[in-house]
Amino acid sequence: MTQSSILERLSALDTNTVSDALDFLNLKGTAYDLKPLWNCPKIVGRTSTVKVGPKTSTAPTTHLLTPVIDAVTTDDRILVIAGGKDGLSCWGDIIANASKQKGIRGTIIDGMSRDIDGSSDIEYPVYGRGVTMVSARNRLVQIDSGNPVQMRGVTVNEDDYVVADRCGTVFIPANRIEEVLELGEKIDRRQNGMVQAVRGGQPVTEVMHDKQFEAIRPPSDASKSASASPRNPKEATIEDQQLVALFAESDTPAVSDALDKLGIPGQAFGIIPLTDYKKVTVGPAFTIRYVPASDPPGSVGDFIDDVAVGDVVVIDNSGRTDCTVWGDIMTQYAGIRGISGTVIDGVCRDVNRAIEDEYPLFTAGRWMRTGKDRVQVAAVNEAVGIGKVRVESRDIVVADANGVVIVPRARAREVAEVAQRIEQSEIGIRDLIVGGATIAEAREKLGYHTLQRKQ
């Protein structure tokens, strides 16, 4: 098999599928928290490894990475940089331009980048742990290249294969690439069959009932359209509709201020939107709690058929970021059934599907590794913890581009009333400013500094 055909086949798979294949083969290749540092395209290629470390002498040195960039002679290379330090840059716009000129496909750093706009401007993909403004000059130097490096606990060799996309980064040992590709393609076909089955109306409990190892078997009847309608038979109650309507004109900052004024803890810390949603998501909480898997493992997703139209699925995975509890099939099915959105104290995967479908997802992050055989459902519609907030079943969830707040159901009307008063005061302040008042005058007149003060 030629290198071009290998890369072509690998390019057809995403990190989620490759991660599943690595799991099946008991290979360690998923590198957590190496994410796109701008809105990067997916990159697929072979690794050129570099190790950096602290500078220990005062002698002048060649700028780190430049010898490796100059040595590249093929168009399949991805630079893989290990040894970065928090707060110090391993990358910048000048070497991004040099790499672009050499035909290098992208850079993956176990560390940080600066001048990220420079990389973005020339559409050069950079994946890593974050961004900084602090130069590596006289702080970090290149200490090795072309030898094995450690990337977030994964050993990466020169000429290994790598795939990086919105969900993260996976590395594939060069000597195992053919079996990973073969298995990944089987998993991909199986997943596509499952998606088609869901679209055809088959209950997701049947579609996703197989265990992880069974997922690579050819589907028996998953691709056949089911006669059952995909419409959700579980409609929202009148009371649910009334409570949701109370927050139809509110956003999370106003509700957060109302919660503060009433002394109610409800702001879900660390739970952020998958993208900058323009609309506010509101709905009653359908709560699920996950725990580590037993032996044999239990179910990961059978609850979804019990979720009503307009509900928000609220999943407590104890803040775990090493395995997911939500992917594209769940997104597809939730959208079909009119579920309002999903909030996870943990991570999700298959984010392209959620973004393209505009399905609201609020999580602690994203990663590609499956939760199958790692976690299982322990409780449904019981109290859970989300971002340090207690959430009871049927509490009201309000979520938008700012984050997520939880309103206790018994106090929903009270919170909504206070939130609306706060919003009206802020509208009044803005009107006064437009009319020529100073911000101090407007705030003083409408009591801005006491809006969220406890009663």
From TrEMBL:
Molecular function GO terms recorded: metal ion binding
Coiled coil: none
Positions of substrate binding: 327-330, 349
Binding site residues for Mg(2+): 350
Gene3D superfamilies found in the cross-reference section: Ribonuclease E inhibitor RraA/RraA-like
Annotated region described as Disordered, given as residue ranges: 216-236
Amino acid composition bias (Low complexity), ranges on this chain: 218-230
Co-factor requirement: Mg(2+)
Entry keywords, A to Z: Magnesium, Metal-binding
Keyword Magnesium applies: yes
Descriptive protein name: Demethylmenaquinone methyltransferase family protein
Organism whose genome encodes this protein: Penicillium angulare
